[in-house]
Design brief:
Order of helices and strands: HHEEEHEHHHHHHHEEEHEHHEHHEH
Number of strands: 10
Structural class: alpha/beta
Radius of gyration: 26 Å
Helix content: 40-55%
Number of helices: 16
Largest sheet: 4 strands, mixed
Strand order of the largest sheet: 3-1-2-4
Strand content: 5-15%
Shape: elongated
């Protein structure tokens, strides 16, 4: 008994008030971060346990099940705190589904995946999309695109790479090759050796700016302090591409981009060559729909693309953006309105938003 009282006293913490508030709110997001016990019943529970609330003076808090059981408490049979949470179960099932998709030669049917992980097709589709940020089909497509990029660099022929990556026919692959690779499969396999990218570096109020374009449109806008570093970044993206310094005609392109940076409200009347996954394209399209001078939170952006819980995936898509300003990921802020990270520096984000607020 003395041992139990010692452990109970040791469990008191300055943040117990916050934990008690989570218990009162039956906060599911706190499940897994701590458990609470009730001295009068000898039971410990999750914060979200739906059982009748105990009196505060009878409640003790522990970091986990081991500590609670060491103090002499037993697990609640209703909320089962010593078993994985529903969120953890869903995450495990989605991870298993992702493994099946990764290993399958052809995309398994939705019903087959759902049955394997023990969920109904509708529920599985909703849970998968909420956790991954993509539907099972879009996830499979993104994985297949990743595999074909790898196979094109190691396979003996382009055809072999196409089938090794999981495409059922070469015709279906070639229909989408340009969007996936930004060039022909052979060009990609050769490291972009036949791709021609025109670029130029200029100065603007944000420092140095590099603008690059393929024959389809602007494919990169980089911001930074060191012009040479920006060129190296472009070279890293296409190590064997033919990089050509912009001529007089291209000066008009970079002038339009610089003018757009200085006065965003005017818009950018140039075609863009955008490469990314299906989910990234949805995020980037939503970003381009945000009016100049306005900002939204990552949570709101996730809602706009139809995945309210995919906040991390949305942030990842913003970070993957390679076309600064034209795809305005700088217009996304934290829920409290404060500035978060920005690929080209938070201070540049601050300046861009200030420019847009004045225009």
């Amino acid at each position: 008994m003395t041992r139990t009282l010692d452990l109970l006293n040791a469990s008191a913490r300055p943040d117990d008030a916050m934990r008690w508030a989570a218990v009162l709110a039956r906060d599911k997001s706190s499940d897994g971060t701590f458990v609470f016990s009730v001295v009068t019943t000898g039971i410990y529970c999750r914060p979200s346990c739906p059982a009748r609330r105990a009196r505060r003076e009878n409640v003790r808090f522990f970091d986990g099940c081991i500590e609670a059981e060491a103090a002499g408490f037993r697990a609640c049979k209703r909320c089962k705190p010593n078993e994985p949470t529903l969120a953890e179960q869903h995450a495990a099932r989605v991870a298993e589904a992702c493994r099946l998709i990764d290993e399958a030669a052809d995309l398994p049917r939705l019903a087959e995946l759902a049955d394997t992980v023990g969920l109904s097709p509708y529920h599985f589709h909703r849970v998968f999309k909420a956790i991954v940020g993509l539907t099972p089909r879009d996830y499979a497509s993104a994985r297949r695109q990743h595999r074909v990029r790898e196979k094109l660099q190691t396979s003996a022929t382009v055809t072999e790479a196409i089938y090794d990556a999981g495409f059922s026919s070469s015709g279906r692959f070639y229909e989408n090759a340009a969007g996936m690779l930004g060039m022909t499969p052979t060009e990609f396999r050769d490291g972009g050796s036949n791709a021609q990218i025109t670029f130029a570096v200029a100065r603007c109020s944000l420092g140095s700016i590099l603008v690059a374009a393929s024959h389809r449109g602007v494919c990169a806008i980089f911001l930074g302090d060191d012009p040479e570093a920006l060129v190296r970044e472009l070279q890293d993206r296409f190590p064997r591409a033919s990089l050509m310094a912009g001529d007089e005609a291209f000066e008009n392109v970079i002038a339009k981009v610089v003018a757009f940076v200085e006065a965003p409200a005017k818009g950018l009347d140039l075609p863009l060559d955008i490469k990314g996954t299906a989910f990234q394209h949805r995020v980037w399209q939503a970003l381009r729909a945000i009016p100049s001078g306005e900002t939204i939170s990552y949570a709101e952006l996730a809602r706009r693309v139809g995945d309210p819980k995919a906040i991390r995936a949305v942030a990842g898509a913003c970070a993957a953006n390679r076309i600064a300003v034209a795809i305005p990921c700088h217009r996304v802020v934290k829920s409290d309105g404060s500035l978060s990270g920005y690929r080209w520096g938070v201070e540049r984000k601050r300046v861009l938003l200030a420019k847009e607020a004045k225009s």
